[in-house]
Write a structure and sequence with these properties.
Blueprint: H1 15-20, E1 25-27, E2 33-35, H2 43-47, H3 65-73, H4 78-95, H5 104-113, H6 118-127, E3 130-133, E4 139-142, H7 163-173, H8 209-223, H9 232-243, H10 250-267, H11 277-294, H12 299-314, H13 318-335, H14 347-370, H15 394-419, H16 423-426, H17 429-447, H18 451-454, H19 466-495, H20 507-531, H21 542-561, H22 571-578, H23 582-599, H24 606-626, H25 635-642, H26 656-660, H27 672-675
Antiparallel strand pairs: 1-2, 3-4
Organism: Ogataea parapolymorpha (strain ATCC 26012 / BCRC 20466 / JCM 22074 / NRRL Y-7560 / DL-1)
GO biological process, one term: DNA-templated transcription
Domain Zn(2)-C6 fungal-type: 8-63
Length: 677
């Protein structure tokens, strides 16, 4: 037992009492009840025969009576531990010949005499372990999830899977005179190149060196600045080996090929020829490479998965791109690059792996939202940051802010999974409150942007970068996602024929208005790109993001053109307060149609598909608005035109009519001031 003068008071109850929300009481000397005594076990833990401790560092609480239990459960008899103690005592006597060692206390006294901080060592050791006793009385010592090994890299393999343990066993069982049998267990399979795919897979001589350098420069300047997934020094090392005639593995060769291909795709303004060699080899070996990467995790394999996903999204295979980012996310978490302990002793590697992880996260969340799916990532398990203060380039700051923005979009996916399956749930105060809180988080994010990133229209072109432009596109796209479900609710209410006025202060109206205004802002950004020759319609997804804005403006136009709109929304108040009217929206749609015509020559792949969608939608809307007919169509017709099973607009809203039919003091007496505190 620790002397009372040496005891320290803990600041919290033990874990078991804290979990059961009860007072943690310990019995002191003379049957005096005391609380928060680190030396005594609490009464509840004594009753349950459990170790009394708290998980906070330097505040673990142990009772001396359990020391015997730990020794008893170790299944090591005293006759076996005797020789070990004897050897340890003899070793210590050799170090300090004049010391008398007859007990454990003498050993601790020796350590203190030579200046060893025993308490610090013990606390540091206990900080990495958690002692639990199960119902059978067995002691379970839980290690950290990622084991850091001196002879290798962090793994999720457990202590027996680390290279150091393997090497120690080899040193024990192998004789020094047989070094040829020693295994190379300390090598890192995560960084090692994978085996060759086939003898005829080679990119040597595929393109000349001048084109390779040009494509690589374009890739790292324009593509890798947004999708940060390839380390340039690693690429240069691979290319140097290629020019020297060395053989690269299939994964290494495919990474170099993808860098060239994306560099070429970025500058192309028409569809690739069918005999294009880069695209031909990519299509031939892509599926085999993906299969090879899927069965064996490696860092370079994860990089290749990300690059293939980028190419897939640019050539009208967005569903495949979403699946590949999900596979990359699973492999990245299994390797452990989402944890801050992974290579934290090497800042360069930590920065590279952090950028790779957050690129995967941002795009997995973005594509999951587009495809109407849930994210496969557990954000609570992510501990690595995207912020590196030592690398405050504008592209790095944009990347960090983009990661924060996609964490809000990740929360929206959680919100959508819980609330958009049923319109009654969507109409509930809790759902509306959650949506308004997401809107408030987006506003807070926007206001916290650095001054040099806040305004793209008044920035000098020489100082403006595409990551900054794309950051604002993503922001308005996230805003649309939060507000458009409520715009659709109002649309269905208008077509119901009911008469229920929505005031300007209602959060439902403000969320719908936000989606409309952000859709108009998407047009302003894309037009600014085109006028200043910053638009890219091959690799980047700007036009596809604008297409979602056109969808929102189309729905809003149908809503405002209907004679029934006044039954739900005061259109004059909407124009006077928010600057939204049918004529103003129709003018914006006309500008978008003109811009879309100008962008046709600059589109390729997925951008061409987005161009066709915008063109056909605006053409059909023009005929729909101009036809002389009082019947604006049933909701089923609107669903067929604007709903898709994989769209972000795929929600059920029938129950909203019942919600609108309630009295104002029962339903819409729920103001923004009540939820934004």
């Amino acid at each position: 037992m620790v002397e009372s003068s040496l005891r320290k008071k803990a600041s919290f109850s033990c874990d078991r009492c804290k979990q059961k929300k009860r007072r943690c009481v310990r019995e002191g000397g003379g049957n005096i009840s005391v609380s928060l005594d680190v030396a005594q076990a609490c009464t509840e833990c004594i009753k349950s025969n459990s170790i009394c401790h708290t998980s906070l560092i330097n505040r673990k609480q142990y009772a001396s009576r359990y020391k015997c239990q730990l020794i008893g459960n170790s299944n090591i008899s005293s006759d076996k531990t005797g020789p070990i103690k004897s050897i340890l005592l003899q070793t210590l006597k050799k170090l300090v010949p004049n010391i008398q060692l007859e007990s454990d206390a003498d050993v601790i006294g020796l350590a203190k005499a030579v200046g060893v901080n025993v308490d610090g060592i013990v606390q540091q050791k206990l900080a990495t372990q958690s002692f639990l006793v199960d119902s059978l009385g067995h002691v379970d010592i839980q290690q950290e999830q990622i084991v850091k090994d001196d002879n290798g890299d962090p793994r999720l393999l457990g202590s027996l899977g680390t290279p150091a343990i393997h090497n120690n066993i080899l040193e024990l069982i192998q004789k020094p005179r047989n070094p040829e049998f020693r295994s190379e267990a300390a090598s890192n399979p995560l960084e090692s190149p994978q085996g060759s795919l086939s003898s005829n897979f080679s990119i040597s001589g595929l393109i000349d060196k001048a084109k390779a350098v040009r494509y690589a420069d374009i890739f790292f300047e324009n593509v890798n600045s947004v999708f940060i997934c390839v380390c340039r020094s690693e690429y240069e090392e691979l290319v140097q080996k290629l020019w020297q005639g060395e053989t690269l593995s299939s994964i290494q060769s495919f990474l170099v090929l993808l860098v060239w291909l994306l560099g070429k795709l970025y500058i192309i303004e028409q569809e690739l020829d069918t005999d294009d060699r880069l695209m031909s080899i990519y299509k031939t070996f892509r599926d085999h490479i993906v299969g090879q990467i899927s069965v064996k995790c490696s860092i370079i394999g994860i990089r290749v998965l990300v690059l293939i996903a980028i190419v897939s999204e640019s050539v009208e295979e967005r569903d495949l791109a979403c699946n590949l980012f999900k596979i990359a996310a699973v492999q990245a978490t299994s390797v452990g690059i989402h944890r801050d302990v992974f290579h934290q002793e090497v800042p360069r590697l930590q920065k590279e792996y952090s950028e790779l992880w957050w690129t995967i996260f941002n795009n997995e969340v973005r594509l999951s939202n587009i495809m109407g799916r849930s994210s496969s990532i557990d954000l609570d398990d992510v501990t690595i940051s995207a912020n590196f203060k030592a690398h405050q380039l504008k592209s790095n700051v944009c990347f960090y802010e983009s990661s924060k923005l996609h964490q809000i979009l990740y929360q929206f996916l959680k919100f959508k999974a819980c609330n958009l399956q049923n319109s009654l749930i969507l109409s509930s105060p809790d759902a509306i409150e959650n949506a308004v809180q997401l809107r408030q988080k987006l506003l807070t994010w926007r206001r916290s942007l650095p001054e040099n990133l806040g305004d793209i229209f008044n920035s000098k072109l020489t100082e403006l970068s595409y990551p900054q432009i794309f950051l604002h596109l993503e922001y308005h796209y996230c805003y649309i996602n939060v507000g458009v479900p409520f715009l659709l609710l109002i649309l269905r209410a208008v077509n119901s024929g009911k008469t229920v006025q929505i005031s300007k202060d209602d959060p439902i109206l403000q969320l719908a208005v936000s989606s409309i205004n952000c859709s108009k802002q998407l047009y302003n950004i894309v037009e600014y790109e085109f006028e200043n020759k910053l638009f890219n319609g091959s690799v980047h997804t700007d036009l596809y993001i604008l297409y979602h804005g056109v969808l929102v403006l189309t729905i809003a136009s149908i809503l405002l053109k209907s004679d029934k709109c006044g039954n739900i929304v005061d259109t004059e108040l909407l124009d006077r307060t928010f600057g939204i009217s049918f004529d103003k929206l129709w003018e914006v749609l006309g500008k978008i149609r003109k811009l879309n015509d100008n962008l046709k020559a600059h589109c390729f792949g997925s951008a061409t598909m987005a161009w066709n969608l915008i063109d056909s939608l605006l053409h059909d809307l023009d005929g729909f608005i101009n036809k002389e007919c009082d019947d604006w169509g049933s909701m089923l017709q609107i669903d067929q035109n604007f709903y898709d099973p994989l769209s972000m607009f795929n929600i059920s809203t029938d129950g909203f009519l019942e919600f609108l039919s309630t009295q104002a003091n029962e339903g819409f007496d729920f103001r923004v001031a009540d939820v934004v505190r």
